[in-house]
Amino acid sequence: MAKFELRLPKMGESVAEATITNWLKNVGDHIAADEAVLEIATDKVDSEVPSEVTGVLSEILFQVNDVVQVGQIIAYIETEGGVVVDAPKEETTAANIQAVEQTIAVAHATASAPVDFSNSEKFYSPLVKNIAKEEGVSLAELEAMNGTGKEGRVTKSDILEYVKNRGSQPAPQAAAPAVAQPAVQAQPVAQKAAPVSVNGQDEVVEMDRMRKLISGYMVQSVQTSAHVQSFIEVDVTNIVKWRDKVKNAFEKREGEKLTFTPIFMEAVAKALKDFPGMNISVDGEYIIKKKNINLGMAAALPNGNLIVPVIKNADQLNLVGMAKAVNDLGNRAKAGKLKPDDTQGGTYTVTNVGTFGSVFGTPIINQPQVGILALGAIRKVPAVIETPEGDFIGIRQKMFLSHSYDHRVVDGALGGSFVKRVAEYLEAFDVNRDY
Predict the structure, then answer these.
(1) pLDDT tens per residue, range 125-135
(2) Which of 15, 126, 162, 421 could form a disulfide with 271 if both were Cys (CB 3.0 to 4.6 A apart)?
(3) What is the pTM of this model?
Protein backbone atom coordinates (compact mmCIF):
# COMPACT_ATOMS: atom_id res chain seq x y z
CA MET A 1 0.00 0.00 0.00
CA ALA A 2 1.14 3.55 -0.67
CA LYS A 3 0.17 6.80 0.94
CA PHE A 4 -1.17 9.67 -1.15
CA GLU A 5 -1.00 13.13 0.36
CA LEU A 6 -4.25 15.00 -0.13
CA ARG A 7 -3.40 18.68 -0.09
CA LEU A 8 -5.49 21.83 -0.06
CA PRO A 9 -5.38 22.85 -3.74
CA LYS A 10 -4.58 26.31 -5.03
CA MET A 11 -7.85 28.21 -5.42
CA GLY A 12 -6.80 31.56 -6.83
CA GLU A 13 -3.99 34.07 -6.72
CA SER A 14 -5.29 35.90 -3.67
CA VAL A 15 -6.62 32.88 -1.76
CA ALA A 16 -4.06 31.60 0.75
CA GLU A 17 -6.25 29.61 3.12
CA ALA A 18 -9.64 27.98 3.55
CA THR A 19 -11.84 26.73 6.36
CA ILE A 20 -12.95 23.09 6.43
CA THR A 21 -16.73 23.06 6.70
CA ASN A 22 -17.58 19.37 6.24
CA TRP A 23 -15.86 16.03 5.74
CA LEU A 24 -17.82 14.03 3.17
CA LYS A 25 -15.74 10.92 3.86
CA ASN A 26 -14.67 9.24 7.10
CA VAL A 27 -11.53 7.30 7.90
CA GLY A 28 -11.85 3.85 6.31
CA ASP A 29 -14.18 4.99 3.51
CA HIS A 30 -13.35 4.02 -0.06
CA ILE A 31 -12.78 7.00 -2.38
CA ALA A 32 -12.87 7.00 -6.18
CA ALA A 33 -10.69 9.28 -8.28
CA ASP A 34 -12.28 12.75 -8.68
CA GLU A 35 -14.75 12.00 -5.87
CA ALA A 36 -15.28 14.83 -3.37
CA VAL A 37 -13.64 14.19 0.00
CA LEU A 38 -14.46 17.35 1.92
CA GLU A 39 -16.08 20.77 1.62
CA ILE A 40 -14.15 23.99 2.21
CA ALA A 41 -15.00 27.66 2.39
CA THR A 42 -12.99 30.75 1.54
CA ASP A 43 -13.97 34.36 2.19
CA LYS A 44 -16.11 34.31 -0.94
CA VAL A 45 -17.16 30.86 -2.13
CA ASP A 46 -17.70 27.31 -0.93
CA SER A 47 -16.25 24.40 -2.89
CA GLU A 48 -15.33 20.73 -2.70
CA VAL A 49 -11.90 19.11 -2.67
CA PRO A 50 -11.79 15.95 -4.83
CA SER A 51 -9.35 13.07 -4.58
CA GLU A 52 -6.81 12.67 -7.36
CA VAL A 53 -6.54 8.92 -6.75
CA THR A 54 -8.63 5.87 -5.91
CA GLY A 55 -8.07 4.42 -2.46
CA VAL A 56 -9.11 4.36 1.19
CA LEU A 57 -9.07 7.41 3.47
CA SER A 58 -6.56 6.41 6.15
CA GLU A 59 -5.99 9.59 8.16
CA ILE A 60 -7.62 13.01 8.61
CA LEU A 61 -5.27 15.76 9.81
CA PHE A 62 -7.75 18.63 10.30
CA GLN A 63 -11.23 18.87 11.74
CA VAL A 64 -14.28 20.93 10.81
CA ASN A 65 -13.76 24.70 11.30
CA ASP A 66 -9.96 24.33 11.15
CA VAL A 67 -8.19 26.87 8.93
CA VAL A 68 -5.80 25.27 6.42
CA GLN A 69 -3.14 26.89 4.24
CA VAL A 70 -2.97 26.25 0.50
CA GLY A 71 -0.63 23.35 -0.21
CA GLN A 72 -0.90 21.92 3.31
CA ILE A 73 -1.57 18.18 3.72
CA ILE A 74 -5.11 17.66 5.00
CA ALA A 75 -5.45 13.88 4.77
CA TYR A 76 -3.78 10.64 3.67
CA ILE A 77 -5.29 8.15 1.24
CA GLU A 78 -4.01 4.56 1.03
CA THR A 79 -3.61 3.47 -2.58
CA GLU A 80 -2.65 0.21 -4.27
CA GLY A 81 1.02 -0.09 -5.21
CA GLY A 82 4.40 0.03 -3.55
CA VAL A 83 5.49 3.57 -4.40
CA VAL A 84 4.81 6.50 -2.09
CA VAL A 85 2.82 9.05 -4.07
CA ASP A 86 4.04 12.65 -3.98
CA ALA A 87 7.30 11.66 -2.28
CA PRO A 88 9.32 14.47 -3.92
CA LYS A 89 6.99 17.08 -2.46
CA GLU A 90 7.18 15.60 1.04
CA GLU A 91 10.81 16.57 1.63
CA THR A 92 10.26 20.20 0.76
CA THR A 93 6.96 20.36 2.56
CA ALA A 94 8.38 18.69 5.66
CA ALA A 95 11.12 21.31 5.82
CA ASN A 96 8.56 24.09 5.46
CA ILE A 97 6.32 22.59 8.10
CA GLN A 98 9.28 22.12 10.45
CA ALA A 99 10.22 25.78 10.02
CA VAL A 100 6.64 26.86 10.71
CA GLU A 101 6.46 24.62 13.78
CA GLN A 102 9.70 26.09 15.11
CA THR A 103 8.33 29.60 14.62
CA ILE A 104 5.15 28.70 16.45
CA ALA A 105 7.15 27.07 19.27
CA VAL A 106 9.19 30.23 19.71
CA ALA A 107 6.04 32.33 19.73
CA HIS A 108 4.48 30.09 22.38
CA ALA A 109 7.62 30.30 24.49
CA THR A 110 7.51 34.08 24.46
CA ALA A 111 3.81 34.31 25.24
CA SER A 112 3.16 35.59 28.74
CA ALA A 113 0.40 33.05 29.43
CA PRO A 114 -1.81 30.47 27.66
CA VAL A 115 -4.73 32.04 25.85
CA ASP A 116 -7.83 31.50 27.99
CA PHE A 117 -10.64 33.39 26.29
CA SER A 118 -13.08 32.65 29.09
CA ASN A 119 -11.37 35.37 31.13
CA SER A 120 -12.24 38.04 28.57
CA GLU A 121 -15.46 39.97 28.13
CA LYS A 122 -14.55 40.79 24.54
CA PHE A 123 -15.69 38.79 21.50
CA TYR A 124 -13.05 37.07 19.37
CA SER A 125 -13.94 35.15 16.22
CA PRO A 126 -12.82 31.49 15.88
CA LEU A 127 -10.35 32.54 13.18
CA VAL A 128 -8.76 35.18 15.45
CA LYS A 129 -8.57 32.64 18.29
CA ASN A 130 -6.85 30.08 16.04
CA ILE A 131 -4.30 32.63 14.86
CA ALA A 132 -3.66 33.73 18.43
CA LYS A 133 -3.03 30.15 19.53
CA GLU A 134 -0.79 29.34 16.56
CA GLU A 135 1.25 32.52 16.86
CA GLY A 136 1.49 32.48 20.66
CA VAL A 137 -0.39 35.74 21.14
CA SER A 138 -1.43 36.07 24.77
CA LEU A 139 -4.78 37.30 26.01
CA ALA A 140 -3.06 40.42 27.40
CA GLU A 141 -1.77 41.23 23.92
CA LEU A 142 -5.21 40.67 22.38
CA GLU A 143 -6.89 42.87 24.99
CA ALA A 144 -4.40 45.67 24.25
CA MET A 145 -5.04 45.66 20.49
CA ASN A 146 -7.11 48.42 18.94
CA GLY A 147 -9.50 46.42 16.77
CA THR A 148 -10.88 47.90 13.56
CA GLY A 149 -14.00 45.73 13.52
CA LYS A 150 -17.47 46.42 14.84
CA GLU A 151 -17.43 47.78 18.41
CA GLY A 152 -13.64 47.65 18.36
CA ARG A 153 -13.44 43.92 17.68
CA VAL A 154 -10.08 42.47 16.64
CA THR A 155 -10.24 41.24 13.03
CA LYS A 156 -8.06 38.79 11.13
CA SER A 157 -6.21 41.72 9.52
CA ASP A 158 -5.58 43.32 12.94
CA ILE A 159 -3.97 40.24 14.50
CA LEU A 160 -1.94 39.38 11.37
CA GLU A 161 -0.61 42.94 11.23
CA TYR A 162 0.25 42.73 14.93
CA VAL A 163 2.07 39.41 14.48
CA LYS A 164 3.95 40.83 11.49
CA ASN A 165 5.20 43.84 13.47
CA ARG A 166 5.54 42.18 16.88
CA GLY A 167 9.22 41.47 16.41
CA SER A 168 10.03 45.15 15.92
CA GLN A 169 8.27 46.37 19.06
CA PRO A 170 8.03 45.21 22.67
CA ALA A 171 5.08 42.98 23.47
CA PRO A 172 2.45 44.51 25.72
CA GLN A 173 3.03 43.65 29.37
CA ALA A 174 0.14 42.20 31.31
CA ALA A 175 0.96 44.31 34.39
CA ALA A 176 1.16 47.67 32.62
CA PRO A 177 -2.36 47.83 31.20
CA ALA A 178 -3.87 46.37 34.37
CA VAL A 179 -4.27 49.81 35.94
CA ALA A 180 -5.48 51.62 32.85
CA GLN A 181 -7.53 48.73 31.46
CA PRO A 182 -10.82 49.42 33.31
CA ALA A 183 -10.95 52.91 31.84
CA VAL A 184 -10.27 51.57 28.35
CA GLN A 185 -12.93 48.90 28.64
CA ALA A 186 -15.56 51.31 29.86
CA GLN A 187 -16.29 52.58 26.34
CA PRO A 188 -17.18 49.27 24.61
CA VAL A 189 -19.66 48.55 27.40
CA ALA A 190 -21.48 51.78 26.56
CA GLN A 191 -21.43 50.90 22.85
CA LYS A 192 -23.09 47.49 23.24
CA ALA A 193 -26.30 47.05 21.28
CA ALA A 194 -29.55 47.23 23.20
CA PRO A 195 -30.66 43.83 24.48
CA VAL A 196 -33.20 42.06 22.27
CA SER A 197 -36.34 40.79 23.94
CA VAL A 198 -37.14 37.17 23.05
CA ASN A 199 -40.35 35.45 24.11
CA GLY A 200 -41.43 31.86 23.90
CA GLN A 201 -42.88 32.20 20.40
CA ASP A 202 -39.73 33.65 18.83
CA GLU A 203 -37.16 31.52 17.06
CA VAL A 204 -33.44 32.28 17.45
CA VAL A 205 -31.39 31.19 14.43
CA GLU A 206 -27.64 31.57 14.08
CA MET A 207 -26.39 33.24 10.90
CA ASP A 208 -24.82 30.84 8.42
CA ARG A 209 -21.14 31.27 7.56
CA MET A 210 -21.71 33.35 4.43
CA ARG A 211 -24.20 35.67 6.13
CA LYS A 212 -21.65 36.29 8.90
CA LEU A 213 -19.04 37.18 6.27
CA ILE A 214 -21.43 39.48 4.42
CA SER A 215 -22.40 41.15 7.69
CA GLY A 216 -18.77 41.81 8.53
CA TYR A 217 -17.97 43.13 5.03
CA MET A 218 -20.94 45.51 5.03
CA VAL A 219 -20.15 46.98 8.44
CA GLN A 220 -16.47 47.29 7.54
CA SER A 221 -17.29 49.11 4.30
CA VAL A 222 -19.60 51.62 5.98
CA GLN A 223 -16.97 52.27 8.65
CA THR A 224 -14.19 52.59 6.06
CA SER A 225 -15.62 54.63 3.17
CA ALA A 226 -17.35 58.01 3.25
CA HIS A 227 -20.38 56.96 1.21
CA VAL A 228 -22.13 59.54 -0.93
CA GLN A 229 -24.68 59.02 -3.71
CA SER A 230 -25.65 60.53 -7.05
CA PHE A 231 -28.87 59.63 -8.89
CA ILE A 232 -29.80 60.10 -12.51
CA GLU A 233 -32.86 59.11 -14.55
CA VAL A 234 -32.27 57.47 -17.92
CA ASP A 235 -34.55 57.00 -20.92
CA VAL A 236 -33.92 53.43 -22.13
CA THR A 237 -36.87 53.21 -24.54
CA ASN A 238 -34.62 52.52 -27.53
CA ILE A 239 -32.79 49.75 -25.67
CA VAL A 240 -36.07 48.07 -24.67
CA LYS A 241 -37.38 48.17 -28.24
CA TRP A 242 -34.09 46.92 -29.71
CA ARG A 243 -33.85 44.02 -27.28
CA ASP A 244 -37.46 43.01 -27.92
CA LYS A 245 -36.67 42.97 -31.64
CA VAL A 246 -33.44 40.91 -31.55
CA LYS A 247 -33.61 38.71 -28.43
CA ASN A 248 -35.09 35.65 -30.19
CA ALA A 249 -32.61 35.81 -33.08
CA PHE A 250 -29.79 36.40 -30.58
CA GLU A 251 -30.67 33.30 -28.59
CA LYS A 252 -31.05 31.21 -31.75
CA ARG A 253 -27.66 32.28 -33.13
CA GLU A 254 -25.61 32.47 -29.93
CA GLY A 255 -27.37 29.96 -27.71
CA GLU A 256 -27.61 32.60 -24.96
CA LYS A 257 -30.48 34.64 -23.57
CA LEU A 258 -30.06 38.39 -24.04
CA THR A 259 -30.98 40.26 -20.86
CA PHE A 260 -30.56 43.96 -20.13
CA THR A 261 -27.59 43.33 -17.82
CA PRO A 262 -24.87 42.88 -20.50
CA ILE A 263 -26.07 46.03 -22.26
CA PHE A 264 -25.73 48.01 -19.03
CA MET A 265 -22.37 46.40 -18.23
CA GLU A 266 -21.07 47.40 -21.65
CA ALA A 267 -21.99 51.04 -20.97
CA VAL A 268 -20.35 50.94 -17.50
CA ALA A 269 -17.12 49.50 -18.95
CA LYS A 270 -17.00 52.30 -21.55
CA ALA A 271 -17.58 54.96 -18.88
CA LEU A 272 -14.77 53.52 -16.72
CA LYS A 273 -12.39 53.91 -19.67
CA ASP A 274 -13.50 57.54 -19.94
CA PHE A 275 -13.15 58.11 -16.17
CA PRO A 276 -10.25 55.93 -14.90
CA GLY A 277 -10.45 57.79 -11.59
CA MET A 278 -13.39 55.50 -10.76
CA ASN A 279 -11.37 52.36 -11.56
CA ILE A 280 -9.16 52.58 -8.48
CA SER A 281 -8.85 51.14 -5.00
CA VAL A 282 -7.60 52.52 -1.71
CA ASP A 283 -4.87 51.01 0.46
CA GLY A 284 -4.47 53.12 3.58
CA GLU A 285 -3.18 56.50 2.38
CA TYR A 286 -2.36 55.22 -1.10
CA ILE A 287 -4.47 55.11 -4.28
CA ILE A 288 -4.01 52.12 -6.59
CA LYS A 289 -4.87 52.87 -10.23
CA LYS A 290 -6.15 49.67 -11.79
CA LYS A 291 -4.95 48.78 -15.29
CA ASN A 292 -7.72 46.28 -16.02
CA ILE A 293 -11.45 46.91 -15.90
CA ASN A 294 -12.96 43.98 -14.00
CA LEU A 295 -16.67 44.40 -13.34
CA GLY A 296 -18.22 42.79 -10.28
CA MET A 297 -21.80 41.64 -10.79
CA ALA A 298 -23.75 41.29 -7.55
CA ALA A 299 -25.91 38.15 -7.69
CA ALA A 300 -28.55 36.96 -5.24
CA LEU A 301 -28.32 33.31 -4.24
CA PRO A 302 -31.32 30.99 -3.74
CA ASN A 303 -30.71 30.98 0.03
CA GLY A 304 -31.00 34.77 0.16
CA ASN A 305 -27.28 35.47 0.47
CA LEU A 306 -25.24 37.59 -1.92
CA ILE A 307 -22.12 36.95 -3.98
CA VAL A 308 -20.18 39.11 -6.46
CA PRO A 309 -18.60 37.20 -9.37
CA VAL A 310 -16.27 39.25 -11.56
CA ILE A 311 -16.18 39.74 -15.35
CA LYS A 312 -12.47 40.09 -16.14
CA ASN A 313 -11.35 42.67 -18.75
CA ALA A 314 -14.96 43.67 -19.38
CA ASP A 315 -13.95 46.56 -21.65
CA GLN A 316 -12.49 44.08 -24.15
CA LEU A 317 -15.74 42.15 -24.63
CA ASN A 318 -18.33 42.81 -27.30
CA LEU A 319 -22.02 42.40 -26.46
CA VAL A 320 -22.02 38.68 -27.27
CA GLY A 321 -19.01 38.06 -25.05
CA MET A 322 -20.53 40.15 -22.27
CA ALA A 323 -23.83 38.25 -22.48
CA LYS A 324 -22.02 34.90 -22.30
CA ALA A 325 -19.96 36.05 -19.30
CA VAL A 326 -23.01 37.42 -17.45
CA ASN A 327 -25.07 34.27 -18.03
CA ASP A 328 -22.22 31.91 -17.17
CA LEU A 329 -21.35 33.62 -13.89
CA GLY A 330 -25.00 34.08 -12.95
CA ASN A 331 -25.88 30.43 -13.59
CA ARG A 332 -22.83 29.10 -11.75
CA ALA A 333 -23.50 31.44 -8.82
CA LYS A 334 -27.04 30.08 -8.42
CA ALA A 335 -25.79 26.50 -8.72
CA GLY A 336 -22.98 27.06 -6.20
CA LYS A 337 -20.34 26.21 -8.82
CA LEU A 338 -18.25 29.39 -8.67
CA LYS A 339 -14.50 29.02 -8.18
CA PRO A 340 -12.57 31.34 -5.85
CA ASP A 341 -10.94 33.06 -8.84
CA ASP A 342 -14.41 33.99 -10.14
CA THR A 343 -14.90 36.43 -7.26
CA GLN A 344 -11.41 37.95 -7.17
CA GLY A 345 -9.92 41.06 -8.76
CA GLY A 346 -12.99 43.26 -9.17
CA THR A 347 -12.32 46.96 -9.75
CA TYR A 348 -15.94 48.26 -9.86
CA THR A 349 -19.29 46.67 -9.03
CA VAL A 350 -22.79 46.78 -10.53
CA THR A 351 -25.90 45.57 -8.71
CA ASN A 352 -29.35 45.19 -10.25
CA VAL A 353 -31.83 46.23 -7.57
CA GLY A 354 -34.51 46.53 -10.26
CA THR A 355 -34.79 42.74 -10.33
CA PHE A 356 -36.85 43.00 -7.15
CA GLY A 357 -38.87 46.02 -8.29
CA SER A 358 -36.79 48.69 -6.54
CA VAL A 359 -36.73 52.01 -8.37
CA PHE A 360 -33.36 53.02 -6.92
CA GLY A 361 -31.15 52.26 -3.94
CA THR A 362 -28.07 53.29 -1.99
CA PRO A 363 -25.71 50.33 -2.38
CA ILE A 364 -22.72 49.75 -0.11
CA ILE A 365 -19.29 49.85 -1.73
CA ASN A 366 -17.48 46.54 -2.24
CA GLN A 367 -14.10 47.18 -0.55
CA PRO A 368 -11.44 48.13 -1.53
CA GLN A 369 -13.23 49.55 -4.58
CA VAL A 370 -14.46 53.14 -4.58
CA GLY A 371 -17.78 52.89 -6.42
CA ILE A 372 -20.84 50.75 -7.03
CA LEU A 373 -23.76 51.34 -9.42
CA ALA A 374 -27.32 50.21 -8.71
CA LEU A 375 -29.63 49.62 -11.68
CA GLY A 376 -33.25 50.44 -10.90
CA ALA A 377 -36.37 48.87 -12.36
CA ILE A 378 -37.39 49.92 -15.89
CA ARG A 379 -40.84 51.53 -15.80
CA LYS A 380 -43.26 53.04 -18.27
CA VAL A 381 -43.74 56.67 -17.28
CA PRO A 382 -45.23 59.79 -18.87
CA ALA A 383 -42.47 62.12 -20.06
CA VAL A 384 -42.01 65.38 -21.95
CA ILE A 385 -40.65 64.68 -25.44
CA GLU A 386 -38.96 67.52 -27.28
CA THR A 387 -39.38 67.66 -31.07
CA PRO A 388 -38.80 70.35 -33.74
CA GLU A 389 -42.57 70.82 -33.84
CA GLY A 390 -42.76 71.37 -30.08
CA ASP A 391 -43.03 69.46 -26.85
CA PHE A 392 -45.57 66.76 -26.16
CA ILE A 393 -46.29 64.11 -23.53
CA GLY A 394 -45.52 60.50 -24.37
CA ILE A 395 -44.99 57.13 -22.69
CA ARG A 396 -41.30 56.28 -22.25
CA GLN A 397 -39.33 53.45 -20.64
CA LYS A 398 -37.17 54.95 -17.90
CA MET A 399 -34.96 53.84 -15.01
CA PHE A 400 -32.78 55.33 -12.29
CA LEU A 401 -29.06 54.81 -11.91
CA SER A 402 -27.89 55.12 -8.29
CA HIS A 403 -24.17 55.67 -7.88
CA SER A 404 -22.50 55.23 -4.47
CA TYR A 405 -18.87 56.35 -4.29
CA ASP A 406 -16.15 56.89 -1.72
CA HIS A 407 -15.86 60.60 -0.94
CA ARG A 408 -12.39 60.06 0.53
CA VAL A 409 -10.98 59.85 -2.99
CA VAL A 410 -13.91 60.59 -5.34
CA ASP A 411 -15.44 64.07 -5.33
CA GLY A 412 -18.91 64.95 -6.57
CA ALA A 413 -17.65 66.16 -9.95
CA LEU A 414 -16.09 62.81 -10.79
CA GLY A 415 -18.81 60.66 -9.22
CA GLY A 416 -21.60 62.64 -10.91
CA SER A 417 -19.82 62.87 -14.27
CA PHE A 418 -19.22 59.14 -14.35
CA VAL A 419 -22.86 58.14 -13.79
CA LYS A 420 -23.94 60.82 -16.28
CA ARG A 421 -21.62 59.30 -18.90
CA VAL A 422 -23.18 55.88 -18.31
CA ALA A 423 -26.60 57.45 -18.87
CA GLU A 424 -25.41 59.15 -22.06
CA TYR A 425 -24.16 55.85 -23.49
CA LEU A 426 -27.49 54.19 -22.71
CA GLU A 427 -29.62 56.98 -24.18
CA ALA A 428 -27.44 57.14 -27.31
CA PHE A 429 -27.81 53.38 -27.90
CA ASP A 430 -27.68 52.54 -31.61
CA VAL A 431 -30.88 50.73 -32.50
CA ASN A 432 -29.38 49.70 -35.86
CA ARG A 433 -26.35 48.00 -34.34
CA ASP A 434 -25.55 44.35 -34.74
CA TYR A 435 -24.89 42.22 -31.73
Answers:
(1) 667 777 887 78
(2) 421
(3) 0.65
